[in-house]
Each structure stands twice: as C-alpha cells, then as structure tokens.
C-alpha cells in the first residue's frame, strides 16, 4: 500500500497548467481584470492593492513585465502587445497563465486592428493548449456600438469553432442585477450562463484618496470588491472544469489565410504576365501578317518569255558550215523581200592545176573570212523558231526566301508563346483552385469567418488592375476568375450568416 500511496502522491505533484487568453475591445477592462486576478492570487486588499499593470491612478507594485503604452490617455488602447501573466494559488503545482492582449476596434484604425489580431492569434497558437477564451465586454453598454460590432465581427472571424465551447464572457463594470448588455448580441455564438460572469471592477477607476474620505463610497467599494473576488473564485473553479483544447486550429487558420492572400497576389502578378504574353503574341501575329503579305508579293519571282532560236532541219539542198565558227555561213545574202536566206552550197570543184586550186582557195572565200577548206556542207537548213521559257528573278527570289524563313521563325515563336500562355493559364487555374480550397478549409475551421473583410482589399486591387488590362481576352479571363472567387466568398459568407 505504501508504494501505491507514493505513486498517487507523485501523480498529484505533476504540474497542471491553465492557459487563458483575454479578448475584447479597447477600454473593456482586460488589463483591469488582470489586476483583479493579481489581487486574488496574491491576497491583495483594498488597503494593500497588488498591481501588475499600471493604470492612470496606480503604479505597478509586482515588478512584472507589461506592455502598456500611455496609461494617462484613456482615449487610446494601452496594451500594445500580448503579455503573459503567471499566477499560482494554494497548490503550487497549479499554474494559471492569463494572456493579456491589445484591445480591438483600436483608435488607430483598421490597420492597427488587423495587426493586433495577428498578434492575438499568434499568442493563442504559441500557447499550445488553451483552457479558455475570456471575452471581456463592458456590461454597461445598452446598445451595440460601432466599435463593439466591429470587435465581435473580428472575434467571430478569428476564433476556431473547436474553442467556442471554452468561451467565457466577463461583463465588467456591472453586477448581475445592473448589467445592460444583452447576450443575444453575441449570436450566432451561444454562451451558457454558467460561463457568464459579472464584475464591478471599479476599485482602480479612482485614486484611494477619493474613497478613503467617503465612508459610503468606501463601503460600496468594499462590497463590490468582495463580490468581485468571489466572482473570480467562481471563474477559477469554472476553468478547472473546462478541458484544454489544442490550438492547432489557430495554426491551420493562419496558414490558410496566408496562403489565400499569397495566392491572390500571385494570381494578380500572373494575370499581368498574361497581359505581357498576349501583347507579345499580338505583336508576333501582326508581324506574321506583314510577312505573309511580303510572301505573296514576292511569290511571283518566275517570269515567262518568248525566246528565238535556230533549229537545223533536214533538206535536199546543202548548207555550208564553218568549222571555225561552228555556224552556217552566209556567203552572200539573197534578198527575198525582207528575209535573208542562206546560199545553197556548191560542191568543191575538181582543180586540174595549181592555179585553179589557188583561185578556189583565195577567190572563193566565205564572208566569215575563213578559207573554203575550213567549211563543210550538210543537207540541213537552219530554221528560226521561238519557245516560251521561265526566267527566275534572283533579287525577287531572295526576298521571297527571306520572307519565308522569317515566317517559319515567327511561327515557331508564336507556338512557344502559345505554349507559355497555356502553361500560365494552367498555373492560374491551379492557384484559383488552391484559393477556393483554402476558403473551404477556413470555413470548416471557423464557420463565421468573415471572408468579405478578409479579402475585400485585395479583390478590390485585382478588380482595379483588371480594368487597366488592354487585351480584351486577358481582361475577360481575369474578370471571370474574380467573379468565381467572389461567388465562393459570397456563398461561404451567406452560409455563415444563415448558420
């Protein structure tokens, strides 16, 4: 039995840790709640206040790190960064870590709210396990102010559904009898009454000097102080009953949100690339049309013409040919109208003596100047004829060949551009599908995620840049993609409202 007793004591000594994050609009009282918690865990009293976070009327007493900006300016959010305040009570092995966060609906505007929300979600993610999310609301508000509506919208869009069962509401500056805030304003969230607490945490709203001299005020403060401490005790008891929830959902939400914005930016850049490719493609096609005109222009590089030539035709009479000139000889022209004819050749005479031979060689010469012995006679007659031949104009042919070569090169470049355009469109399709898939994943993680607020800015930029596109084809495709994304966003947003 001693062994089992020791084992049980070892199990009891294991440290328990409760991580609680405080959320709310600027001025709701998150930092004041931290100071009340400080007094609860450190046994503070009205006469001996324990201050973790300095305020307008009180200096910090516990030496804890804080991120308060200007405690004297109540018009602005004081907490500028998430800060963890660690407390222990009675059992030293039980640790409570309260994460104070910057106020939402900050006076610095929407950009500051977005930055603060990123810090809050980052702190929630890093905590690993969250026991509860405490929503701090000023309970004196009788109507839904613009800042409160903005805050609730931001929170609904940021808290995963898996953690809604661990949602606690602390209504400040009121009691259960004097509260003005209507919990119906939290819809579609439903918070069980066991998770709703009222605290009139007004002890830090005025300096000690004001209520110590006023007995009635002091009694009221003491009574409210006791009620607030009892309320915190009930809150701590409630925390112990809540099971911790892993904050993996915050990480998944962050990844999907970052991916959506990144992919939308890439989509915008690639649409611009489409415009550049289309411009280049249009220019290439114009160049190709000009080249096609040149090809047509230079395609007539062959010309037909009539050529005159002489053909030897067999005949009975002979014609003398000169072996030196290789042509028929015209010894003497016989005029027959306007036509020149060749003289019919005579046979070489038989020379009986040297004188006769000399006379034949010297006196009977051809007009070509060569002797009779340089000639011979054939029974053919030269006849002039004509025929049609094709002549190639070299300069035109060169221009045609150059234009044809350019056309082949342009056609190859157009093919490459078409391939690049098709690949880019496939990439755009994949990005669009990825964006829509991330939207659906976000909807599963946080059913009330505000897609309109989240994507309004970048979709507006996409629509603006789309109007600047000069290609009607690219613009039409870009507008179709934007409509598709907006349709899904509207569909998911409508589903969130109806849910």
Automatic annotation (TrEMBL):
Domain G: 20-140
SUPFAM superfamilies for this protein: P-loop containing nucleoside triphosphate hydrolases (SSF52540)
Pfam families in the cross-refs: MMR_HSR1
Signal sequence bounds: none
InterPro entries per UniProt: GTP-bd (IPR006073), P-loop_NTPase (IPR027417), Sigma_54_int_dom_ATP-bd_1 (IPR025662)
Keywords: Coiled coil
Residue ranges that the Swiss-Prot or TrEMBL entry lists as coiled coil: 393-427
Domain of life: Eukaryota
Name of the molecule in the record: G domain-containing protein
Source organism of the structure: Aedes albopictus (Asian tiger mosquito)
């Amino acid at each position: 039995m001693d062994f089992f007793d020791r084992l049980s004591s070892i199990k009891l000594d294991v440290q328990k840790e409760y991580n609680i994050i405080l959320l709310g609009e600027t001025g709701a009282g998150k930092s004041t709640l931290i100071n009340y918690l400080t007094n609860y865990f450190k046994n503070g009293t009205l006469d001996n206040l324990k201050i973790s976070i300095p305020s307008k009327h009180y200096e910090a007493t516990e030496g804890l790190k804080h991120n308060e900006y200007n405690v004297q300016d109540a018009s602005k959010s004081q907490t500028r960064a998430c800060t963890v305040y660690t407390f222990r009570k009675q059992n030293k092995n039980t640790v409570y870590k309260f994460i104070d966060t910057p106020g939402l609906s900050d006076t610095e505007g929407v950009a500051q709210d977005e930055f603060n929300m990123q810090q809050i979600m980052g702190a929630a993610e890093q905590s690993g396990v969250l026991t509860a999310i405490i929503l701090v609301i000023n309970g004196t508000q009788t109507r839904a102010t613009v800042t409160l509506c903005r805050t609730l919208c931001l929170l609904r869009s940021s808290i995963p559904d898996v953690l809604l069962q661990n949602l606690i509401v602390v209504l400040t500056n009121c009691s259960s009898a004097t509260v003005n805030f209507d919990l119906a304003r939290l819809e579609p969230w439903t918070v069980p009454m066991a998770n709703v607490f009222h605290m009139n945490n007004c002890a830090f709203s005025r300096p000690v000097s004001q209520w110590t001299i006023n007995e009635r005020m002091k009694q009221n403060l003491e009574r409210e102080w006791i009620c607030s401490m009892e309320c915190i005790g009930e809150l701590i008891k409630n925390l112990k009953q809540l099971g911790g929830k892993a904050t993996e959902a915050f990480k998944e939400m962050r990844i999907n949100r970052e991916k959506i914005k990144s992919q939308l930016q890439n989509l915008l850049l690639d649409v611009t690339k489409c415009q550049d490719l289309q411009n280049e493609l249009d220019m290439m096609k114009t160049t190709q049309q000009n080249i096609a005109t040149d090809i047509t222009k230079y395609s007539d590089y062959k010309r037909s013409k009539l050529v005159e030539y002489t053909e030897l035709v067999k005949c009975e009479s002979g014609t003398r040919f000169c072996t030196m000139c290789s042509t028929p000889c015209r010894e003497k022209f016989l005029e027959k109208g306007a036509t020149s004819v060749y003289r019919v050749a005579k046979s070489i005479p038989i020379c009986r003596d040297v004188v006769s031979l000399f006379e034949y060689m010297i006196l009977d010469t051809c007009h070509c100047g060569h002797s009779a012995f340089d000639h011979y006679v054939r029974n053919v007659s030269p006849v002039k004829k004509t025929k049609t031949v094709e002549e190639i104009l070299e300069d035109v042919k060169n221009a045609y060949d150059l234009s044809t070569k350019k056309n082949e090169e342009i056609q190859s470049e157009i093919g490459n551009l078409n391939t690049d355009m098709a690949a880019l469109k496939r990439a755009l399709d994949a990005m669009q599908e990825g964006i829509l898939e991330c939207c659906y994943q976000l909807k599963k993680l946080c059913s009330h995620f505000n897609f309109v607020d989240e994507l309004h800015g970048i979709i507006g930029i996409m629509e603006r840049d789309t109007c600047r596109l000069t290609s009607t084809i690219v613009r039409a495709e870009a507008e179709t993609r934007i409509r598709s994304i907006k349709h899904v966003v509207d569909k998911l947003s409508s589903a969130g409202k109806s849910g």
